[in-house]
Design brief:
The structure holds two protein chains of two kinds. Chain A folds into two domains: 61 residues; 76 residues, Glutaredoxin, CATH 3.40.30. In chain A, 44% of the residues lie in helices and 11% in strands. Chain A has a four-stranded mixed β-sheet, with helices on one face. Chain A is elongated, with a radius of gyration of 18 Å. Chain A starts with 9 loop residues before the first helix and ends in a 6-residue tail after the last helix. Chain B is of the alpha/beta class. Chain B is globular and about 75 Å long. Chain B contains 22 helices and 16 strands. The N and C termini of chain B lie far apart (67 Å). Classes of the chains: A alpha+beta, B alpha/beta.
Chain lengths: 158, 527
């Protein structure tokens, strides 16, 4: 997952967001694709973005805010440097996902995955025969265990 | 001549190192082709090398195994012989998955050589009404989980007059233990496009949407590429195959909401709203996307259509049993030695799937429970494993076939913890629109925490039963309405896991997880 640093100039960012929204004006129900585009561009959706999107798409700010807050993927603040997402679905639980998740949360809190890493739960990556599954900065990995997780995140510690 | 090697690009294969193997093979001089997965997920990365007798497979290949693969060394311990002759595949009946893992996913010529577009061509030679009747005759039922007769839905949309109709594919495969939608789209995406085009023609829809969950980035990329290719060759667009029929397809990506797999919340999400469930009626077939008649089908339902129309609905209806006709794509997952895709006619038993195909647990311990049909499906105990997989038979034992996911647990599983998890998951993923689901899920976690802590267990189990009753009868959709199914099945079949703490800890020889261990770390969450 490549993240771009927040644009220093808020005015410039709003212009970019307005252009992103305007490019989808012809689509039916364009809000979700617009929000994905903003996420891809900036890594999170700022309140100023919400206002700009609402204006361009002729929606209320409350409508846009409601959608942003409903879906887990839409962040409202910059993401951490690294994200470990671990599946807690039943199939992964049957092969030890709960213990792995607990160990990973503990390790992240102790700084074992570097200074700015978040461990989050996900319910299913569709890799249920090769669990426990997770993504490491977006890359899907199967047959995970704490040692393999530690090895795969080693470079974040330096 | 350089040997031709097939290395899957399916996300599951990638998760265990398929790209690294492909790079090593290419560096060693092989001509590497990328396919979907054959469905033998236990063998991934499963590399095939072309030889005169056929494609010879090697299981769990690493970059260190390049030499025996290139030499097609059939004496190597990782060699599983000609993959087409492997008993795991020869015992199956692949209709929907016939091409997955065999062809190059986004090669139009490969698709056509393997029987692609035959269904669409036949459909366009028929009237839309005849196409609908073929689907009715096939007995096909919605593969997303509900099992509603597809033909009836198609008839309803076809019979509703409107200026604009839509066909929507529900590809929000969020159930744990299911991955068939993902694998068919990553391995054979044109089948979905063909199915949607036939559906659009049959019901009179000219615009289609595929709603994909964001957890499936590989599938999104494959699907987008397939749609672009199909447009260039006239399989999509204003004049499909010169017939004058129009279908425009769009891919829309979700954003991490399980509930958008429920068709009405998926429609709201497509409209750019919060993915909240709609009260029915009206049904989407009459008033769906943007209030227009909309055909909503699951990926596997639409992917069954090309074969049905090509060979005729009657031949599909010869497969299966009772009112469960055709094949079901079962997904073996969890703690299973040989997990993957097993496509068979309805009627196979759980025992055959778990023991014969699955080979028991991965851990080698005894099987204690199998959850069928996703997080909202029941846990089935071993003494019911001889029940044939059939919508009605499973309903008869208080379970459901659902989307065909089969998740195996060994004897270390604590069924009371799984019951608690069912509520926790419901609470995480509830859209919050109806009270039984929004509040009931939180209360369910509370009650289960009391039970797990051994406090007032009998009284709390009465409360639990009441809560399950309220959620089942009062919820707007299957999320709240079916969460009690795994809970009640766990309580019904494994009451010892819900017993008073004193009884649980005093039981001798109890499997791990149901006895002493519960007195320790597991209590942290409850106190």
């Amino acid at each position: 997952m490549v993240r771009k640093p927040p644009t220093a100039d808020v005015g410039a960012r709003v212009d970019v967001v307005r252009a992103i929204a305007a490019a989808r004006l012809e689509d039916r129900g364009p809000l979700m694709p617009v929000l994905h585009d903003v996420m891809a561009e900036f890594g999170y959706i700022d309140h100023a973005d919400v206002v700009a999107i609402a204006d361009v798409l002729n929606l209320s700010v409350a409508d846009v805010h409601g959608v942003v807050s409903f879906y887990k993927d839409f962040r409202t603040a910059p993401a951490p440097a690294h994200i470990v997402a671990l599946c807690r679905g039943e199939a992964c639980q049957s092969v030890g996902a709960e213990a792995l998740y607990a160990a990973a949360r503990y390790a992240a809190a102790a700084g074992d995955y570097g200074p700015d890493t978040e461990v989050e739960q996900v319910f299913c990556f569709g890799n249920c025969a090769l669990g426990p599954s997770g993504t490491i900065d977006g890359r899907l990995v199967g047959r995970l265990d704490p040692d393999r997780l530690s090895a795969l995140t080693q470079e974040w510690r330096s | 001549m350089n040997p031709i090697c097939w290395v899957p690009q399916d996300a599951a294969a990638l998760s265990v190192g398929a790209d690294e193997v492909a790079a090593a093979l290419a560096a060693a001089g092989a001509e590497v082709r990328r396919n979907g997965s054959r469905g033998l997920l236990w063998a991934e990365p499963l590399v095939e090398v072309e030889t005169d007798p056929g494609r010879v497979g090697f299981a769990q290949v690493t970059p260190l195994d390049v030499r025996p693969v290139l030499a097609a060394d059939t004496g190597h311990p990782k060699c599983i012989g000609v993959v087409d002759d492997h008993p795991w595949l020869t015992g199956q009946l692949r209709v929907s998955f016939a091409r997955v893992g065999v062809i190059e996913p986004t090669s139009l010529s490969s698709y056509a050589e393997h029987g692609g577009w035959a269904g669409l061509r036949r459909a366009l030679s028929m009237s839309p009404e005849q196409v609908v009747e073929e689907v009715v005759a096939s007995g096909l039922r919605g593969r997303g989980g509900a099992g509603f007769p597809a033909g009836v839905k198609w008839r309803t949309v076809a019979g509703t007059q409107a200026d604009q109709k839509f066909v929507c594919c529900n590809f929000d495969e969020g159930d744990s233990g299911t991955f068939a939608d993902r694998m068919i789209v990553e391995g054979d995406p044109f089948t979905l496009l063909e199915g949607m085009t036939i559906a659009g023609y049959a019901v009179g829809a000219t615009e289609g949407y595929v709603y994909v969950r964001s957890e499936y980035p590989h599938a999104v990329a494959t699907l987008r590429r397939a749609i672009d290719l199909a447009y260039t060759q006239g399989f999509l667009g204003p004049d499909v195959l010169g017939s004058g029929v129009r279908l425009d397809l769009h891919v829309r990506v979700g954003a991490g909401a399980y509930l958008c797999g429920e068709e009405s919340s998926m429609l709201d999400s497509l409209e750019g709203k919060r993915g909240e469930v709609r009260a029915k009626p009206p049904i989407p077939a009459i008033s769906g996307l943007f209030g227009q008649p909309t055909l909503v089908n699951n990926v596997l339902t639409l992917c069954a259509v090309p074969a049905i129309v090509a060979a005729g609905g009657a031949s599909y209806a010869e497969l299966g049993r009772g009112r469960s006709l055709g094949t079901q794509v079962f997904q073996l997952a969890g703690n299973v030695a040989r997990g993957g895709i097993v496509e068979l006619p309805f009627g196979v038993t759980l025992r055959e799937l778990v023991e014969d195909w699955g080979g028991g647990t991965r851990s080698g311990r005894p099987v204690r429970a199998v959850q069928v049909g996703g997080p909202l499906g029941a846990y089935v105990p071993p003494h019911q494993f001889d029940t044939p997989l059939d919508y009605e038979e499973f309903a008869g034992i208080g379970a459901m076939v659902g989307h065909g996911g089969v998740v195996v647990f060994d004897d270390t599983v604590d069924m009371a913890r799984m019951a608690r998890f069912a509520f926790e998951f419901c609470g995480e993923e509830s859209c919050g629109k109806c009270t039984p689901c929004r509040i009931g899920s939180a209360r369910g976690v509370d009650v289960m925490d009391e039970v797990l802590a051994g406090r007032n267990v009998d009284a709390n189990l009465i409360l639990l039963d009441d809560l399950c009753e309220t959620m089942t009868k009062g919820s707007l959709c299957a999320m709240g309405g079916l969460t009690p199914m795994p809970v009640r099945s766990a309580l019904r079949h494994w009451p010892e896991d819900f017993a008073q703490l004193a009884e649980r800890t005093s039981r001798q020889g109890a499997p791990k997880g149901t006895g002493a261990r519960r007195g320790g770390a597991k209590h942290q969450g409850a106190q």
